[in-house]
């Protein structure tokens, strides 16, 4: 058995396949199989590990949350959430940018997907902002960066994946942990938007009117109730995450078809077909990542990584910055789910060794991955935003630069101020 060669085959092989643009699930599977062959491991173990990887009760929540997001995203609620946000913050300088950011916070709590947020809200808000005199690249930058709020605001299927990968963390605690970081990200983006809007003299909206806000809140309450069902159900111990997600799917179906009437039954079948496409990718990835994780553990890669990072410095601050840097670099070349599945077993022990709570680290991972979704060459949300706005990617990246700074400041605050993530879980669940 040649451990060093097996590690090289596993990690270098994986990175090579990623750069050759293999689908991530194939890159993970091929590099894992090659590693097992070099290491002399019986390949009969492969199928057992893949089945075990997806045989988790907690992971059953993932397909339900994805389905809920698809139904709500296609069910005519986008316009209602935009109107609600407009009645709340549209009066500010750069009002439509503020509306975009706040609407993303509301919508993220329903879809849990940055890509769905960008596609759904962006297709409405980017043309609307352009008609009101906002630069199109600025409008796109606001849309794609604010969409990352949806990754932090529960319910998020990525939080479920992290909770399972990290070793059965409380999904309810993770859900609660996302609210304040999500609001902090929204606030930092609003400050950035305000400064740019003031400089470029972007318009204000109508003055705030309490009656109008209450009217829009009444129209949106059916959509927002889906979040209440999930979060209160899980946190209060009324349902498990899986049970609450299943109930939320039924509720979303009723709201989308019978209350908002944004979907007919033909549309429902189309949405379910899209869900199956998304879900198949996620579950294949989880299954193959279980094999990759086994190879990492068998070769003691997490221990080696911990020693390598701690040998650079003993300072918890430097180590925390290094962890963020590694996650940001991974975000530039990989999608979100594989980063969570592959990096968590390696980096979480290092994070806990310097006093970072696993729940706090989960929020750090998710925000780092969110920033990765906006960075070339693999930034899927960046591509979607460019496609929706019909703008070259380079122009969108340039307009996004000030907002990257806002997101990095938020990330650093979450990293070095634990109570931002831990205040609500500690308050409510202890």
Explain what the structure shows.
By secondary structure, the chain is mainly alpha-helical. The protein has one domain (56-429). The chain is 80% helix and 0% strand. It has helices at 3-19, 24-39, 44-54, 61-74, 78-89, 95-111, 114-131, 136-146, 149-152, 157-165, 171-177, 179-200, 210-235, 241-259, 265-298, 301-312, 316-333, 336-353, 358-372, 380-389, 393-416, 419-429.
Percent strand: under 5%
Share of helical residues: over 70%
Task: Provide the low-confidence segments as ranges.
Answer: none
Query: How many H/I helices?
Result: 22
Helix-strand category: mainly alpha
Report Rg.
22 Å
- Total number of distinct structural domains: 1
Largest sheet: none
Distance between the termini: 48 Å
Shape summary: globular
Order of helices and strands: HHHHHHHHHHHHHHHHHHHHHH
Average pLDDT for all residues: 84
Overall strand count: 0
Question: Helices and strands in order, then pairings?
Answer:
Elements: H1 3-19, H2 24-39, H3 44-54, H4 61-74, H5 78-89, H6 95-111, H7 114-131, H8 136-146, H9 149-152, H10 157-165, H11 171-177, H12 179-200, H13 210-235, H14 241-259, H15 265-298, H16 301-312, H17 316-333, H18 336-353, H19 358-372, H20 380-389, H21 393-416, H22 419-429
Provide a concise account of the structure shown.
The chain is mainly α and 430 residues long.
What attributes characterize this protein structure?
430 residues, 22 helices, mainly alpha
């Amino acid at each position: 058995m040649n451990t060093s060669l097996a590690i090289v085959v596993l990690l270098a092989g994986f990175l090579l396949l990623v750069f050759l643009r293999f689908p991530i699930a194939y890159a993970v599977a091929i590099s894992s199989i090659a590693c097992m062959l070099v290491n002399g491991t019986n390949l009969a173990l492969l199928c057992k590990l893949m089945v075990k990887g997806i045989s988790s009760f907690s992971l059953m929540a993932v397909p339900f949350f994805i389905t809920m997001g698809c139904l709500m995203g296609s069910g005519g609620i986008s316009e209602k959430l935009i109107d609600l946000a407009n009645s709340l913050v549209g009066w500010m300088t750069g009002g439509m940018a503020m509306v975009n950011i706040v609407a993303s916070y509301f919508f993220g709590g329903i879809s849990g997907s940055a890509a769905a947020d960008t596609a759904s809200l962006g297709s409405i808000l980017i043309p609307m902002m352009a008609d009101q005199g906002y630069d199109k690249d600025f409008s796109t930058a606001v849309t794609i960066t604010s969409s990352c709020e949806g990754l932090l605001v529960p319910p998020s299927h990525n939080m479920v994946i992290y909770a399972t990968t990290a070793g059965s963390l409380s999904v309810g605690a993770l859900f609660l942990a996302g609210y304040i970081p999500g609001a902090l990200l929204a606030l930092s983006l609003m400050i950035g938007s305000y400064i740019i809007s003031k400089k470029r003299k972007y318009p204000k909206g109508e003055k705030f009117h309490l009656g109008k806000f209450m009217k829009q809140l009444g129209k949106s309450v059916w959509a927002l109730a889906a979040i209440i069902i999930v979060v209160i159900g899980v946190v209060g111990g009324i349902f498990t995450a899986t049970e609450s997600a299943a109930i939320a799917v039924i509720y979303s179906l009723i709201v989308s078809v019978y209350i908002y009437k944004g979907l007919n039954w033909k549309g429902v079948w189309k949405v379910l077909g899209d869900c199956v496409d998304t879900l198949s990718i996620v579950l294949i990835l989880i299954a193959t990542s279980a094999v990759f994780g086994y190879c990492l553990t068998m070769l003691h890669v997490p221990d080696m990584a911990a020693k390598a990072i701690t040998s650079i410095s003993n300072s918890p601050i430097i180590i925390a910055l290094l962890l963020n840097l590694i996650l940001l670099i991974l975000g530039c070349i990989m999608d979100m789910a594989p980063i969570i599945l592959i990096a968590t077993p390696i980096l979480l022990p290092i994070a806990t060794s310097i006093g970072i709570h696993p729940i706090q680290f989960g929020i750090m991972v998710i925000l780092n991955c969110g920033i990765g979704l906006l960075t070339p060459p693999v930034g899927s949300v960046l591509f979607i935003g460019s496609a929706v706005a019909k703008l070259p990617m380079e122009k969108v990246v340039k307009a996004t630069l000030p907002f990257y700074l806002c997101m990095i400041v938020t990330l650093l605050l979450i990293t070095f101020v634990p109570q931002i993530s831990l205040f609500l879980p500690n308050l409510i669940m202890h």
